[in-house]
Amino acid sequence: MLLNSLTAKAIVDEAHRAWGAGDIEGVLRTYADDIWFQRNAVDASSAPLVIVGRAAMGVFLRDVLSKATGMAVVDDFQFHAGIGRSRVSYFLKDRKTGQGLSGTYRQIVIFRDMQISRMEQFHDAARLTAFFKLIEVPPLAHSAFATPDRGTN
Asked: Alpha-carbon distance 122 to 60, whole Å?
């Protein structure tokens, strides 16, 4: 199967659909074994969250899912030269308090062998960090996942 805009969007949609269903294994199936994930930092002086590898992504996603439910929908998707660019609407809800967070973020996705090999997300980092603090998910202190290498695939 050739990776084109429709196939690339279907892969990204499947990752978000699985997340909304609480199907972490479904999310992970859309990722390459050596997935490289980055989420922007709280502020310009902080390092971004970087997670490398499908296993580390699974630990991170299960940690978030243990504390919050979530849903994400791709509002806009463009694909050019092997790179997907998305605008995603999302909602997170704290399982304990019911506190919610909704918003949008931008996402850059690079594919290899019909899977996501690199993903960068750009959130309203201050709002997301405040929510994660509220529900006790450390937003940038995932030392088991973070790597000092910000290099590319």
From this structure: 17
Domains of the chain plus CATH, in order, are 5-134 (3.10.450.50)
Q: What is the pLDDT of residue 118?
A: 98
Residue 3: in which H helix or E strand, if any? none
| pLDDT tens-place string over residues 52-70 | 999 999 999 999 899 899 9
DSSP assigned state of 145 = T
Helices (H), the chain: 5-20, 24-29, 54-67, 125-134
Work out the average pLDDT over 72-79: 96
Six-digit token string for 84: 């997907």
In this structure, what token pair is assigned to residue 63?
Answer: 């940690």
CA distances from 61 to 58, 139, 145, 153 (A): 5, 12, 11, 21
Measure Cα distances from 40 to 47, 78, 126 in Å. Answer: 8, 21, 10
Contact 104, 139 (CB under 8 A): no
Question: What is the pTM for the complete model shown?
Answer: 0.83
